[in-house]
Amino acid sequence: MYTFDVCVVGSGPGGGIAAYALAKAGLKTGLLEAGPPLRAGIDYGKHAMPWEVHEQLLNGQWARNSAFGLREQNHFTGVGDRPDHGWLKAVGGRSLCWAGHSLRFGPKDYQEWPISYDEMAPYYSKAERFMGVYGHKDGLSNMPDGEFLKPIGMRCGEHLLKRGVERMKAQGAKMEFVQQRKAMLTEDHASGRARCHFCGQCSGCCVDAKYTSANTPIPMGLRTGNLTLLSDAMMTRILTDSSKRRISGVEFTKANGEVDRVNCRALVLACNSIETPRQLLINGLANSSGQVGRNLTSHFGLNVQGYFPELRDRKALDDECAGAYQSLLTGLYWDKPSPKFQGTYQVQCTAGWALMDLPVRGIKGYGKSFKRELREKCAGNARMNMQGTLLISSKKFVDLDQSRKDKYGLPLSRIHLFYEDSDIAMAQDMVERCEDIIRAGRGEVIASPGKVTADKLMIDYNHWVGTVRMGNDPKTSVLDRFGRSHDIPNLFVGDASVFPAYPEKNPTLSNIALSWRMSEHLAELAKKGELS
Ligand SMILES: Cc1cc2nc3c(=O)[nH]c(=O)nc-3n(C[C@H](O)[C@H](O)[C@H](O)COP(=O)(O)OP(=O)(O)OC[C@H]3O[C@@H](n4cnc5c(N)ncnc54)[C@H](O)[C@@H]3O)c2cc1C
Ligand code: SF4
Predict the structure, then answer these.
(1) Ligand 2 pocket mutation, candidates 198, 318, 326, 350, criterion most atoms within 8 A of CB
(2) This prediction's pTM
């Protein structure tokens, strides 16, 4: 049995930063993680050659390169349009394999939140400095600049996409084309992590140049002497007093099946946006609003591929860079919403000889002609990957599947996803816009979904948010504006399930900034004696 001031459950980006911030504030903190520790470059991230990666992708052996190959299987039930759910059970969670894209949400993105961008700005700055984020200062109105390490630049094909965007802007189109911002080191950094060597294997960085929970906040938390990490420890029950208004601790099951217990004055759930609501529903907690599991949203998308003949004879170069997407089409519908759909989208762009993106499928024949065309298509290709926000509606939610249980006897989550007219209209707009950009850049469209239908859409199963949302009204939200339960004053949430609305931007930087803010608030309450 263990006793801590605070128990944090889940060691991904949300839980990792909470554990660090709480331990640094002097609170005795326990960090419970269902999975084992994995070693960068040993258990994952093997620097395989690009053609090996492709082969491994085809035969399902991706685990050697990307920790994500080790993700859970058969751990949820899907209803509707092919939902999926990424769960990497390991110390660091999915930060081990994330791509590191780190974009601030802007002032407009916070309009439906109980907090403003100005309140969040200092936490974004702290998070960027702590993680090490490279980027270019673009001065955009709704994707504010951060505290950046020096940027990397774009590939040739990406510059030609930018040319297309500039031409369309000159005719009145409203959009921006900028460099990506990623949590990877391009300069020496206080964490002592290595600098990026541009090998492009970022879904499992073998030298820890990419920020993960396992390589920065957890070791720094452990060094305070206030943090205890319990790995291979799956929380299987939340313990409360008889009124269910106060958490007293949690039960967890070890890898050998033994059950143990943590007593704590406060509990932080950071299990991810599907697992946190699942745990609250299983335990029947914090749901007087009926909103646990509701308001589910994510990003979804499609790809459009272009080819720029003027790059055909370009020398074969190592285009791997710091992972695929080095540029971003953004600024769409920020000022004037579309009359055809709700929300916004962004498009992540990549180009060139990054062989994971081989345009090989469209090439016919074999031998010399195949090789020549492959060389030309690789030199001149550019790929545009849409990331649009799913409409929040009553058709998208998480509940429990009482007919299927995990190995601990707990019901699995059930994810309900149905694409709606607004989602399809957004994707159609993106496809047409990307095709226009490629042509305006003097390229050819070589692969496109054409007319969009629900069966062509792909969900981003790593970007779910919103299922335990924050708000000022306890009747319509689960948490207050700091991520503290309205119903249970010593229960907090530190993952992206707290988002009450979702822009087109990637979630994790905001998740980390919010969890840091929540943790400082929790530490303040503890200091004032409000948790005992
Ligand atoms: C390939 C890939 C690329 C990505 N790229 C980006 C990107 O570029 N930018 C971006 O913003 N996001 C990206 N993401 C998404 C990002 O990784 C997630 O948003 C983020 O990891 C979520 O953090 P989290 O702490 O909520 O959850 P997770 O990372 O899922 O961590 C949750 C942890 O909790 C543990 N856990 C769950 N239940 C229990 C329990 N009952 N007891 C104990 N432990 C438990 C899990 O094992 C896990 O370790 C990417 C993800 C993947 C897989
Ligand atoms: S490109 Fe940089 S961040 Fe990505 S895996 Fe290689 S060293 Fe790590």
Answers:
(1) 198
(2) 0.96
